[in-house]
Amino acid sequence: MTVRQHDAAGRAIAQQDPRLVTDASAPANLATSYSLSGKVLSTTSVDAGWRVSLLGEADQAVQDWDGRGSQRWMEYDEQLRAQAVFEQRADDPRVCTERYRYGGADPACASHNQCGKLIRHDDPAGTQLFAEYGVIGGVLQQTRQLLRDLASPDWPERETDRDALLEPDTEAMTRSSYNGLGEVIAQTDAKDNRQLFSQTIAGQLREVRLQVASETAPITLVSSIEYNAHGQTAREVAGNGVITTLDYAPEDGRLSRLLAKRGNTPLQDLRYEYDAAGNVLSIEDAAQPIRYFANQRIEPVSRYGYDSLYQLVEATGWEAGEANRGPGFSSFNDPAPRANYRQTYHYDAGGNLLELIHEGPQSHGHRLVAQVHSNRCLPVHEGVEPGEEDFHRGFDANGNLLSLQPGQVLSWDLRNQLREVRPVARDAGPDDVECYVYGADGMRVRKVSLTQTNALTLRAEVRYLPNLELRTHSGTGEVLQVISVQAGRSTIRVLHWEQAPSRATVSDQYRYSLNDHLGSCSLELDSAGEVISQEGYHPFGTTAWFAERGEVEVGYKTLRYSGKERDATGLYYYGFRYYVPWLQRWASPDPAGTIDGLNLFRMVRNNPLTLIDSDGLAPTKPVALSLPPPPPPPPPPPSKLDRSPQFSSGKVQESLAQYQFSPIVLSPPNLPGNEPSQAWKSTDYVDIGKLANTISHMFGVPERPIVIADVSHEALFEKINSYTGQGEIKFDKEKRSEHPAAWTSPKGVVYMGVTAPDYSEGGSLDVDKIRSTVVHESLHFFSHQHVGFQAGTDTAITNSNYDEYVTDYLAEKVFNAMYPGSTYKTGYFTKNLDGGFVQWGGNMAKFMIDSGHVGEHELVNAYFGTGKLKPMPDQSLTKWKALARNNISKN
Question: Where is the composition biased (Pro residues) (predicted)?
Fold first, then answer.
């Protein structure tokens, strides 16, 4: 039982999980303080420490403090665009870690579509320049230049002084091309390798080709991608001739079989079974034979069991090789001496996996101990349990893990990003070090490893650029380009050596990764379809078995469990966090806060076969295990409708005699209860800058910063009343769910009622609903200065949502572009159609477009520009709905 305490305004001020609630002396897992206007001023977390924020008049972040004594300041221009970011570690001087410059209104900027756009960004990794934008907002040319030093910069005001801090002559330019719909059709990386993409008429990926800079013609990496009626990938052909087919259960759209064949030889044949809730019960690889070893029958089947909270409690399968108890990894050249294994998992009431019992040849079971009043956990070493002093030494004030194993120290930067690991510490002489540098978006830009030998310091470096990694090694002299291509369901990495390792002769190598439903790389193939390596995993990501054809070749495999990069430290890099697979936990608290519950270290809700975490923020179901995504819109049929302003039901009925409407179909909605949601921040769940760019890019409108104010549900109600002049109407706490959960004011400010019941599902925050609402209201923000809908439309209640319907139609497109595989949720898009929860709102606009009554370009122009849709008097919307019901496809 999770206990929440609310203030008089219904905002959650204290929350305790089922573990701490039983201890009268325990603090709340999360305590939150609010301003009088409902803004979050401070949070105190037993896992992540405390934070205090100072916000400006438009809710922009002005200054932040945290438990480590760190401070951060933001400066803005008169348009509330970020100008500079300053940071200060405790007892250190303040430094400028970011600066921004935007395009002006001069002819030079106009000729490159830079007006009002970000054109220079100096961040902790170096400088990014955006030299060219497309007419619909996409970046056509961007350049990344890195700092000379690995240390965090202190950017001066003058750009010439900033340029002096950068590496000379190392500009890495990436160029992109788009079609008229804003889809990427070509991208040229910093080494002039060119990727080419082609789409189907419905906008789905059909083919990917790559032309390496040294070649004269592109080669096909994947082609003939086919989709089923729900938009799920059904078949694809890789460039090495391997054909992959995917089968889905007709009743729920879940993946039932994943088959990859080279000719008639199956390379991968995964077959899935689920329980009624969608948890994976078994996975069989029918491409593997049944084997017998040491008096055991070893079947290529893994089976899983769950408790009532859907936490994994038991797993069986097969394994080979030695135990993996820490960062080191042993490749198992010969998996023939294999055996069955069984793992059982025991959790405390807070969701901490405290004991893993392993029965099998690897025998790597272990125990963890949780700190008395937090979810910070440390392992038991040689039977000795950690004490309170060990926890103080093992974590910093923000909850970041400080050592992997005794002697292996972790260091964190001011943004709680892993900065440095010392895998080998020496009493005499320098330590081995691995350092990481990140960009302003939190993504890793550099990885530098320094290894000490008897006489030399060997330096290995990786530089991460869009779709390209540049790898160098001072010891071997190797200079390697790794071109990354996401082609269909698999990842293709092309290894191109500018300079081969010492005394080695190599040529370009194309490595095709066949992944399982979680995205884990289970099979690597070369350009002829021959196996390079195979790997099987235990449920939480440790290696169960590994087979390779050559030790040198397999050394270039970096993407493993969940398709993430495994560092030499043994940590998996997910983007916003690092995962410790041998502890089944994250190395730091969730930077998104309680998006996944009150335990900020728990991995995918302890259900690693059914859920994935794509970036280290929140678990989701893989696309293959989710309900079918919305189907692609069919091409509009020939227009036969009467386009006169007056709607004629008889003429339209006649013209639609042969037309069957296929609506956008989403999962059934969950109706909100009356309990307030826990408070949250829009910026924790939505990248507002990316959202503005996506809307601008998708609809060809000028990009401008979206102004969002997070307020309590009650404050939102009062704000609406202050505009409508209905101040005498009071907020009814007994009918919370009937009050609006968000609103965009006539002045263009988006108000999010963050404590509204709409944002919770089963006591937890509904991330899809939060993101859907922010996207929906942001569409209103972009169009609030122009109303092209209500004029000329009658005011009957059945017609009054015309504007909302069109907003939902456009917002669903934006949502799918930003969060593919997730479900768009708003009340307007969950209206009853044809006797069931077939989402209506945006379908009204879709039906009018598909049936030829109005073109999508007309709708977009009327929404964002100066046009108007044809008047719709006399209950016209009601008639349109009736027509859609009569013509809805039953297929």
Answer: 627-639
> b/e for 579-596, b at 16 or more Cβ within 10 A?
bbbbbbbbbbbbbbbbbb
pLDDT of res. 9: 81
Q: What is the pLDDT of residues 516-551, one digit of tens each?
A: 999 999 999 999 999 999 999 999 999 999 988 877
- Using DSSP's 3-state secondary structure scheme, residue 876 falls into helix
Structure tokens at 148: 């000379």
Distance CA 771, CA 618 (A): 13
Angle at 694 between CA 689 and CA 697, to 5 degrees: 125
The CA distances from residue 621 to 250, 518, 578, 614, 624, in Å, are 18, 9, 20, 10, 8
Q: At what angle do helices 802-818 and 688-699 cross, to 10 degrees?
A: 110
Query: Residue 217 has which token pair?
Result: 């013609």
Provide the token pair at 672.
């909100």
Judged against a pLDDT cut of 80, whether residue 797 lies above it is answered with no
How far is residue 102's CA from residue 100's CA, in Å, rounded to a whole number? 7
5 φψ region: left (φ > 0), alpha (ψ -120 to 50), beta (else) = beta
Query: 3-class SS at 605?
Result: helix
Q: How far apart, in whole angstroms, are the C-alpha atoms of residue 531 and residue 142?
A: 37
- The residue-averaged pLDDT of 816-825 equals 84
Rounded CA-CA distance 723/832 in Å is 31
CA distances from 221 to 218, 490, 493, 497 (A): 9, 10, 10, 19
Q: How far apart are CA 619 and CA 615, in angstroms?
A: 9
Q: Do 210 and 221 meet the contact criterion of CB atoms below 8 Å apart?
A: yes
Dihedral, 595, 597, 602, 606 alpha carbons, nearest 10: -110
Spatial separation of the C-alpha atoms in residues 713 and 738, rounded to whole Å: 11
**CB atoms closer than 10 angstroms to residue 546:** 22
pLDDT digits (tens, 9 = 90+) for 728-746: 567 788 888 778 889 888 7
For strand 255-262 and strand 366-370, is the pairing parallel, antiparallel, or unpaired? unpaired
Instruction: Give the separation between CA 564 and CA 642, rounded to whole angstroms.
Output: 55
3-state secondary structure of 403: strand
DSSP 688-717: HHHHHHHHHHHHT-------EEEE-HHHHH
235 near 222, Cβ under 8 Å?
Answer: no
Question: How does pLDDT run across 392-430, given as a tens digit for each residue?
Answer: 999 999 999 999 988 899 999 999 999 999 988 887 778
Task: Give just the sign of the alpha carbon dihedral 35, 36, 39, 43.
Answer: positive
8 Å CB contact between 123 and 440: yes
- For residues 521 and 346, give the distance between their C-alpha atoms in angstroms, rounded to a whole number: 28
Q: With beta carbons less than 8 A apart as the criterion, state whether 155 and 123 touch.
A: no
Cα 694–Cα 697–Cα 701 angle in degrees, nearest 5: 110
Interacting residues of 275 by C-beta distance below 8 A, sequence separation 6+ = 281, 306
CA distance 1 to 106: 61
- C-alpha dihedral sign at 780, 783, 785, 790: negative
Q: How far is CA 182 from the centre of its chain?
A: 21
